[in-house]
Every structure is written in structure tokens, then in C-alpha cells.
What does this fold into?
Amino acid sequence: MSHYQHILIAADFSDHNKQVCEQAREIAQRYQTRLSICHIIEDFPITDFAYEPMISVDLGMRDAMLESGKKHIAQLASGLDIPSDNQWVEFGNPNHDIVRLAQENNVDLIVTGSHGRHGIQLLLGSTANAILHHAHCDVLAVRLQKS
Amino acid sequence: MSHYQHILIAADFSDHNKQVCEQAREIAQRYQTRLSICHIIEDFPITDFAYEPMISVDLGMRDAMLESGKKHIAQLASGLDIPSDNQWVEFGNPNHDIVRLAQENNVDLIVTGSHGRHGIQLLLGSTANAILHHAHCDVLAVRLQKS
It folds into this structure.
């Protein structure tokens, strides 16, 4: 299992995303692997019956978010020569759905960003944590440098 | 920062250590990097005054553990062509001292094993977690397969 064949970038659209993509591309080139990219949009309830009068989420907003995510990923993917079949944008729980996508597509290395453990960064780093524990494959956490 | 130049294996002497070493060697070869290996022996107090009558830890035992660790690492290192100058065995706190060693030696990728999050494996995985959050460089967590 030491020769990677399919690398998945878990993109989060932060300013540092470029670092993650560059590192993944570099490894994909050195290993001559297939490269894919995914982005999971944190899911939210369309309607919460308890708070219905307060929450009014247009279904169109959901579609707009998905479209926007797909455009963003397509832009990143074009710079990495990733074909559209290897771009996945979905609503879900990033902590679980990145791992699920990896498993479904025989990914053997997930590349994601890792933040330090101070303040807000601790929260941002939790997806990397979850991937680390749940993934059935190797995980490369790219240390995001402060710009 | 996308070209790795110095990779550090954080070895824990578990049965799965070979997987971590093989993956690290593979990357080191593909990137043509320097490869180092370290093992931190969990530190313990020589004497606990509260329990002195019950605990009698011979200083010689500490030396023996260090020697044993060094022998083990030397054995692993010889299979990886790692010179003695790049083998570090120390007493300390694995969660912090692996990261410290990496920083002191300009390591840009730490390779360590990651366990699932069930039962005892959750505890074993905590070093990978700590490295992920504290490291100033990238971290590759090699998913340890049940043998």
C-alpha cells in the first residue's frame, strides 16, 4: 500500500487552500496518481418546525450555494488538471462525508489543511482531526502558514 | 514550501511501525529528501516522594530503556539507510518532543502512524493528534491496517 494511486484534496475555500492544492499536486505528480477534489458544504435544515416563524430558508439559496461551490471547485480543479468527473461538491457533514467519498472512490491519500490549536484555529482544525481518526487511508495534513 | 527536503519518522515500536517506515521511505525516495527517525520514550519520575516505599525505580533501568530504544531505532534505521546522526532516541513527552525535534532539525514533513478511534486505539492515536495540532510542518498520518 505504499504507492499512492488516488489522492483526494479536501478543499475548504479558505485563503490557504492554495497551499493544500499545491502540495497535493506535487505529490500527485511525483507518484503519478489520479487526483480528485471535494468540498462538503456544511448541511443545514431547510425547515425547523420548532422555529419555523424565525427561520425562512429559501430552497433556492441551497441551490445557489451548491452552484457557487461547484464553480469554485471547478476553478481550483482547472488549475490542477482535474476532470469534472473527479470534482465532488455536496451538502453534508465534512467530518464524515470527506471520509465517505474517499472510501467510495478508493482514495489512498486525503490531503487537507491543518491549523494550529489556538483560538478559532482550533475549531477550524477539527475537520482534519476527524479525518485523521475516521479515514481508512493515509492523511496528509498540510500546515497552513499565516500569510 | 511544496518540495519536502527533510522527513522525520516518529516511530512508536508498535507492530505496525513497518508500514510507517515504508511509506516514509517511499516519499523520501520520490522527493530525494533527507530521512531521519526519532523515538520518544514516555518520561517517568525517578522517585515519587509520596510513594517512595512502593516505587523503586533503578536509574539503571532508565539507562537500559534508552539503550534498548537506541538499538531498536538503529535496527529500523539500518533498513532505511538512515545514518546514526539522524537517529534520535530521548526520554520526554512524545506529544511535544517529536514536534520540538522536527523544528530543531528543519523537518518539513513528519510521518507517523494513525489508529482508528475505537477503544484502546483512540488513546494510541492521540500522539498523531497532538503532532497534527502542534507541528510547524506538514504531517502524514499513515493509516495503520489491522494485521
User: Anything to note?
Assistant: The domain at 6-143 of chain B is CATH 3.40.50.620 (Rossmann fold). Chain B is about 40% helix and 20% strand. The two ends of chain B are 35 Å apart (CA to CA). The longest helix of chain B spans residues 59-79.
